Amino acid sequence: MIARRDLAVRVAARTDLSPTCFRVILETVDEVAAVPGQFGMLTCGVGFDPLLRRALSIAGVVRREGVTCVEMMVKEIGRGTTLLRHASVGSRLRLLAPLGNGFTLTAVEGTRLGLIVGGIGLPPVLFAAEQLAARKVGFDLYVGAASGAELLEVERCGKAAAAVGGELVLTTDDGSAGEHGFVTDALQRRLDGGCAYGRLLACGPNPMLAALTRLARDRALAAELSLEEPMACGVGVCLGCVVELEDGRYVASCKEGPVFSVDRLAERWWP
After folding, report:
1. Which of 70, 112, 114, 194 has its CA 20 to 30 A from that of 200?
2. Distance between CA 231 and CA 229 in Å, rounded?
3. CA distance linking residue 83 with residue 24, whole number of Å
4. CA angle at residue 14 from 12 to 20, to 5 degrees?
5. Phi, psi of 264 (to 5 degrees)
6. For residue 244, how many other CB atoms are within 10 A of its CB?
7. Which three-class secondary structure string do you get for the chain?
8. 245 and 266 in contact (C-beta within 8 Å)?
9. Which of 3, 262, 244 is nearest to 253 (CA)?
């Protein structure tokens, strides 16, 4: 695998996905050998304002004719992401990537995988879904959001799931699209109905991941979570993203994660 590098990238395209979220496609002449669950640290403007890069999950990587396209999906929540949302096509940025460790994508004999998304947690899980579909590994995909307007890339999610005969389950907190309620409730209903998964892969807000952890532990299900801890450096130096493990150690999630199996995490993270 190609090690992380500080890449010169060009904004090739930028598209709104919802009232709060958008997609940015970055082009570079360098190869980027990322796997689902890894991320990059992206500058938001020119010079040192803002000073810190933003940690963003990678949603896909395609290389054609000597050019690599890196896809990222971003939620506008502050000054840095607002600058990215309004970045002009052709803008020059820097991307430190790939960083961190990704999901386990191997099949579990006799069962499907369960992929669970909450909101802007979609990018690493959709990246995993499309790679699993290409490998003909079966999975069901659960996608939740606050409202129908915030459900991202529904057609693309459905295409990936359909490629392996899987189900796409949509949920919204307000009931405006799909099933009414939390995405973890939809998963629990299907588990109660006899659905079985060899491994769960998930990314989303901490309350969703906490509920999923409790569900996985109660049912002795293997599960991997992509945590969304705040990151300033992405390489384990600043220690702003530490998480406590079950053995009492504290580790930087940017280096040992951001993907962790639930049996490694301390229970204090999931009250």
Report:
1. 70
2. 6
3. 12
4. 160
5. -90, -20
6. 14
7. CCCCEEEEEEEEEEEECCCCEEEEEEEECCCCCCCCCCEEEECCCCCCCCCCCEEEECCEEEEECCEEEEEEEEECCCHHHHHHHCCCCCCEEEEEEEECECCCCCCCCCCEEEEEEEHHHHHHHHHHHHHHHHHCCCEEEEEEECCHHHCCCHHHHHHHHHCCCCCEEEEECCCCCCEECCHHHHHHHHHHCCCCEEEEEEECCHHHHHHHHHHHHHCCCCEEEECCCCCCCCCCCCCCCEEEECCCCEEEHHHHCEEEEHHHECHHHCC
8. yes
9. 244
Identity at 18, one-letter amino acid code: S
* Spatial contact of 84 and 24, defined as CB atoms under 8 Å apart: yes
Whole-angstrom Cα distance, residue 266 to residue 244?
Answer: 6
Report yes or no: 43 and 37 within 8 Å, Cβ to Cβ.
no
Give pLDDT tens digits along the chain (271 positions). Answer: 457 899 999 999 999 999 999 999 999 999 999 999 999 999 998 778 888 999 999 999 999 999 999 999 999 999 999 999 999 999 999 999 999 999 999 999 989 999 999 999 999 999 999 999 999 999 999 999 999 999 999 999 999 999 999 999 999 999 999 999 999 999 999 999 999 999 999 999 999 999 999 999 999 999 999 998 989 999 999 999 999 999 999 999 999 999 999 999 998 877 7
* Tokens of residue 247, six digits: 């053995």
Specify the length of the chain in residues: 271
Tokens of 106: 């191997």
Tell me the domains of the chain and their CATH numbers. Answer: 5-99 (2.40.30.10), 112-228 (3.40.50.80)
Point out which residues pair with 13 in neighbouring strands.
25
**The two three-digit tokens of residue 138, written as one number:** 């079966």
